[in-house]
Design goal:
This protein has helices spanning 3-34, 38-47, 52-55, 76-88, 107-117, 145-150, 185-193, 272-283, 331-335, 387-399, 431-448, and strands at 60-63, 97-101, 124-128, 137-138, 153-161, 175-182, 200-204, 211-214, 223-227, 234-237, 244-248, 253-255, 264-268, 289-295, 313-319, 342-346, 377-381, 405-409, 457-461. The chain is of the alpha/beta class.
């Protein structure tokens, strides 16, 4: 080969090397730019032409009222125009995450915005509209073949969504959150049946759903949370690996199928405490976290031989219980839970209808001692002078040998004036509740404090004397 040919190859090789280095540099700068917050990325694009192309392909678009600065006051229509300009200057290529949150007057733009942003390769879509724009119907055609195969996280709020049977499968969707979405139970069931990889499902304030049915194809579903769906009557799950179920604000018929994998359960229902103690140890033997609420509780908790062998965290809320209800019967949960570490008991109620220890002629009841070696933290919220509640507290102090922290809160647990409340005053409380709170504090000083071992940290929470100076204090 001639010397001239060798020289030409050498020059070509150097040019190719420079070209490769330039491409690598662009990729590095593009990656750095993609890591910047949206406003910083926009500023960088304005200052440097090198970042302009990266800006037009920015992978994370979070569009809300903060894009113009957290302290700026921007008219609603101007904010929509700003977002419209951002999206019109974006190529739509490379968007991985698109969040549109609380934008007024968005309905006039939404179809165009979503057409630009929701493209093949997108992984997360969050669409949160405002209350006045709930009529917007998220189009099913948005989920094209490419979107169906890439989207992993979908959150819809304050809109309508009516998926059809023709919608293709969303094979990689792992998380679905619906809040105040107009969707029927049948439509949701249809959508779920096309999402076999779903792991988390949260449904809240979806008032058109009467029956929530979870199909058996959801083998990966492990977390189901349902709250405040007014018309909901039935929840039926055939997901065999469900391990966390949270139901709030609704009294419905629940059928969970196989529950051996259940580790976290949160429910509220009239007279639930008794049935939970009787049934859950056998139907959900692997529970680790149990949160149950009951109102109008009338039946005492039974002492049974069945155990919650793995239960570590217990929360019980009792509202407006019957005057005949015996708080001391809750010892059954402690005796059934050898691994229990924390216990929160909420008995806060504006009026105390139980027998008070003040004026009672009977002594505190005693039952056979059973030492508990794991309970470390106990908190009773709404502590009052009910005799059976004092007996329960004394039992725990005596038998929980590992107890390290005991909190007795005679309030509702609300923020006080020293916690930065607006106005510098505690919230007003009913006079009868303040009276009973004072009696509860007196009961702690008279019957509980001297029984607490020195190694146990006792915290007593009382109402603020400054804000409630006129509250009855004859028991304090």
């Amino acid at each position: 080969m001639s010397r001239s040919n060798l020289s030409g190859l050498h020059v070509l090789s150097r040019r190719r090397k420079r070209l490769v280095l330039t491409t690598q540099h662009k990729e590095i700068w593009h990656h750095i730019h993609s890591l910047l917050p949206l406003r910083d990325a926009a500023r960088a694009a304005c200052l440097s032409r090198a970042f302009l192309h990266s800006w037009r392909c920015h992978p994370i678009l979070t569009l809300n009222r903060c894009i113009h600065g957290s302290n700026a006051s921007v008219p609603r229509e101007n904010l929509s125009c700003i977002i419209d300009n951002i999206l019109r200057n974006h190529t739509g290529i490379g968007i991985k995450i698109f969040r549109l949150e609380s934008i007024f007057d968005a309905c006039n733009y939404l179809d165009n915005w979503l057409q630009i942003a929701v493209t093949p390769g997108i992984e997360e879509l969050t669409l949160k509209l405002c209350h006045g724009e709930m009529q917007y119907n998220v189009p099913c055609k948005l989920f094209s073949d490419g979107v169906q195969s890439s989207i992993r996280y979908l959150k819809l709020s304050l809109c309508a969504f009516h998926p059809k049977a023709e919608l293709g499968p969303l094979r990689n969707l792992t998380s679905l959150q619906l809040h105040s979405v107009r969707i029927s139970g049948d439509e949701l069931e249809c959508f779920l049946s096309k999402s076999p990889a779903l792991e988390q499902l949260h449904v809240s304030a979806c008032h058109e759903i009467m029956a929530l049915k979870i199909p058996c194809v959801l083998l990966q579903l492990h977390c189901l949370k349902v709250s405040d769906c007014r018309k909901l009557q039935v929840i039926e799950s055939k997901a065999r690996n469900l391990s966390s179920f949270i139901l709030m604000g609704a009294v419905v018929k629940v059928s969970l199928g196989e529950t051996l994998q259940m580790k976290n359960l949160c429910m509220s229902h009239p007279n639930l405490i008794c049935s939970a103690r009787a049934e859950l140890p056998s139907t959900m033997p692997n529970l680790e976290i149990l949160s149950i609420g009951s109102f109008d509780q009338r039946v005492n908790t039974p002492m049974l031989p069945t155990k919650f062998l793995f239960l570590k965290h217990l929360s019980i809320s009792l509202k407006f219980t019957s005057p005949s209800y015996d708080y001391f019967s809750l010892v059954s949960f402690l005796d059934a839970s050898p691994s229990l570490k924390t216990w929160l008991l909420d008995v806060a109620c504006p009026t105390m209808r139980h027998e008070s220890f003040f004026g009672s002629s009977s002594e505190l009841r005693q039952i056979s001692e059973q030492h508990h070696g794991c309970l470390d933290t106990m908190k009773i919220k709404g502590f009052h002078s009910a005799k059976s509640l004092i007996e329960l507290t004394c039992y725990i102090i005596k038998n929980a040998k590992s107890l390290g922290c005991l909190t007795l809160d005679t309030t509702f647990g609300e923020l006080k004036c020293d916690n930065g409340m607006i106005g510098g005053r505690c919230a007003e409380m009913p006079k009868d509740f303040l009276t009973e709170a004072g009696r509860g504090a007196a009961a702690i000083r008279s019957y509980i404090e001297d029984k607490v071992p020195p190694e146990v940290k006792l915290t007593v929470v009382e109402h603020c004397r400054r804000c409630h100076f006129d509250s009855p204090c004859e028991w304090i």
